[in-house]
Amino acid sequence: MSGDTRTPQLTGDEFTAAVTSLANAFGDPTRREIYLRLRSADRGLTCSEVAEHFELHPNVARHHLDKLAAGGYLNVELARGEAAGRPSKRYVARETVGHPLTFPPRRDDLLATLLARSLQLLPPEQATLMAEEVGFDYGRALAARMEPSEGHKFLRTAVVSVADALTAHGFAAHAESKGESLQIISEQCPFGEAAQQFPHVVCAVDRGMIRGMLAGLYGDTNPQFSSSRPAGDAHCVACV
Deepest in the core among 101, 102, 135, 162, taking most CB within 10 A? Predict the structure, then answer.
């Protein structure tokens, strides 16, 4: 007796969750390129190899790899016998042929919405201030994990590192020079509808993250935020 080998059909909610998960994992162009590179590497790659190939900070590369692994797209193996000391992790693309879309749903929007609705209970000015403080503390923690180097004594190096870290968090950000100032331009927002519904809270978290990372990597700065996607602008722009 032959079994039924047809791919299970997804319900509407399951399909929506699967597509959302795919967008979360592969919506970032750098992450897509990393995954495609891993698909062509028979033995996989270490974080340092990915960082070197794509010219990323190791912590940014690790964030991309961990995102892909958490979504079930990569296996993480220990690379033993390659060098003395503790074995490093090797990331290997998983074989996905024949498997239906059964990836975990994205949670960023939910968390941002819960945060924003909680802060809605406070007066607007107090909620915005608290949200920016949360973002600042998180940004400082990110900077500490990025191991500030001698290069971060230069503002441009710090700004580029902040843009890379924002990209790793789904903002698709890059650094540009404009006159005598530097800009961090974010072309997308990972918080989706939450940012549209509660811009004064969610955008305050984003502003705090940028200020916190710059403070941790370079020192105190006073970035000015001239554009905002929730306000109808094409990009979110921070001028340093």
Answer: 162
Task: Grade residue 100 by pLDDT with cuts at 50, 70 and 90.
Answer: very low
Q: Residue 228 has which token pair?
A: 């905002």
Contacts of residue 152, Cβ cutoff 8 Å, sequence gap at least 6: 158, 161, 217, 218
Say if CB 57 and CB 161 are below 8 A apart.
yes
Round to whole Å and give the CA distance between 119 and 85: 47
What angle (nearest 5°) sits at the alpha carbon of residue 209, between those of residues 206 and 211?
110
Instruction: Give, to the nearest 10 degrees, the angle between helix 199-217 and helix 108-119.
Output: 110
**What six digits make up the tokens of 192?**
């989706």
Please give the Cα distance from 78 to 24 (Å, whole number): 26
Identity of the amino acid at 166: L
Question: Could you give the domains of the chain?
Answer: 12-93 (1.10.10.10), 108-239 (3.30.1380.20)
pTM listed for this prediction: 0.56
Please state, in angstroms and rounded to a whole number, the distance separating the CA atoms of residues 105 and 99.
17
